[in-house]
Specification:
single chain; mainly alpha; 74% helix; 0% strand
Length: 155
């Protein structure tokens, strides 16, 4: 086994242990990949991030299996070691794709803030109230006119 492969496997074992604890199972990275695959639909950068993470994690798991079960030398690279180390750090600091998706789901959708007098959906109701007020004023004016007319006729 090459030195790169040993370094990769040591880092992979750390990631595997964290994922096993997260999912209470024996195959933590596989469980993490399944959870990421089953995560609900996401939009924009979150979708790109999740898809990229899935591709990378699948490759890292495949590479681990090649090293452990394969008879030939693997194509483990410095980039693979950097990827597994970065994922390990992300797991420790809640910056991994699943944690980020959960954070995004928990954040409320920002609502637009409208200033006084601006046009917006919250001003639909006051417009209806203006019509009600105008109707009451017109009704009161007509009532007063009718009362004055009756008063003149009676006198």
């Amino acid at each position: 086994m090459q030195e790169q492969e040993i370094e990769f496997l040591e880092e992979y074992k750390r990631v595997e242990a964290i994922c096993c604890d997260m999912f209470s199972c024996d195959h933590g990275v596989s469980a993490y990949i399944e959870a990421l695959e089953q995560a609900g639909p996401c939009a924009g950068n979150a979708a790109l991030s999740r898809d990229g993470a899935l591709k990378t994690l699948r490759r890292l798991r495949w590479l681990r299996n090649q090293i452990v079960h394969g008879r030939e030398a693997s194509d483990c690279s410095d980039e693979d070691i950097e990827n597994i180390s970065r994922f390990h750090d992300d797991l420790l600091h809640a910056g991994d794709p699943l944690a980020l998706l959960r954070k995004a789901e928990q954040q409320p959708v920002p609502r637009p803030v409208h200033r006084l007098g601006s046009v917006g959906p919250q001003h639909d109701r006051p417009a209806k109230d203006h019509w009600k007020a105008a109707t009451v004023i017109i009704f009161a004016a007509v009532l007063v006119a009718v009362i004055l007319l009756m008063y003149k006729l009676l006198m």
